[in-house]
Amino acid sequence: MKALKAGMLAAAVVMALAASMAAAAAPIADDILKRADLVRGPDDPFTLRMNVIAYRGTEVLNETSVMVNSHDYSRSLVEFVAPPRDAGRKMLRVSENMWVRIPASRRAIRITPQQRLLGQASNSDVMGTNYAEDYSAQLLGEEAVTPFDGGAPVNCYKLELTKKTPAASYHHLTYWVAKESYHPIRSDFYTQTGRLLKTAHFTRYASALGAVRPGRVVIVNAVNKEEFTVLDIVAYGKSSLPVAEYTEAALH
Questions:
Q1: Burial 172-210 (b: 16+ CB within 10 A, else e)
Q2: CATH class, range 43-251
């Protein structure tokens, strides 16, 4: 009987320690996620110019250029500047609500963050996402990841992100963040059924707006890796766009 009680006590201690470690891991994961968000974009309003090019192998399938104004990650305005067929088109995001306004149209049309914008890139991939606000994070461990453009493997935190708000574009992600710099290295995007949709690689880091930020994101189709889309960030800057411009009425 004494041996049984001792065994039960030991099991209870182990379970308590496991619960304590899990509780401690949650804020660590959240902190990693917040730090990685600040690498992708600052807290203050900012703008960036981006060229989006869809490829199949070496063949260019389609391309466009946009100017993105972000008041915060819940309010973003995208203006298409090239080529001429796209120029003048605008997309607005306010939390989970999104609209597109085409110059020839009399009104803005509702769209979703998950809709494909060009190639492998969805609307939300171009407009940006606040992972810390929209996803719950769990630290799965640590893993060395080889960067997309080569070089030595990078020691990373491996996180599982699960959708927690309607603004989240994907059901869940696996996310690798560099331990030393908190630079995002890679994201795997999954459907609710667990099917891998695509993988995003963050590369070409350089100084911009007071931090080292990614200059390129490569999004690769999970089924056919010959199909991928490159998001080249040409320039970052500070945004002076008034908050009143981030409304559906302002699109008209």
A1: bbbbbbbeeebbbbbbbbbeeeeeebbbbbbbebeebee
A2: mainly beta
Q: Find the angle CA(150)-CA(154)-CA(159) to the nearest 5 degrees.
A: 120
- Contact residues for 35 (Cβ-Cβ < 8 A; gap 6+): 177, 182
On the CB side of 15, CA atoms within 13 Å amount to 6
DSSP letter for each residue of 75-123:
EEEEEEEESTTTTT-EEEEETTEEEEE-TT-SS-EEE-TTSEEETTEEH
Q: What pLDDT, in 10s, does the model give residues 66-93? A: 999 999 878 999 999 999 999 999 999 9
> What are the structural domain ranges in the chain?
43-251
The pTM is what?
0.87
Asked if residue 195 lies in contact with residue 179, where contact means CB atoms within 8 angstroms, the answer is no
Instruction: Give the amino acid at 34.
Output: K
Please state whether beta strands 135-145 and 154-163 pair in parallel, antiparallel, or not at all (unpaired): antiparallel
User: How does pLDDT run across 163-208, given as a tens digit for each residue?
Assistant: 999 889 899 999 999 999 999 999 999 999 999 999 999 999 999 9
Sign of CA pseudo-dihedral 42, 43, 49, 50: positive
Residue 35: alpha-carbon gap to chain centroid: 13
Q: Read off the DSSP letter of residue 50.
A: E
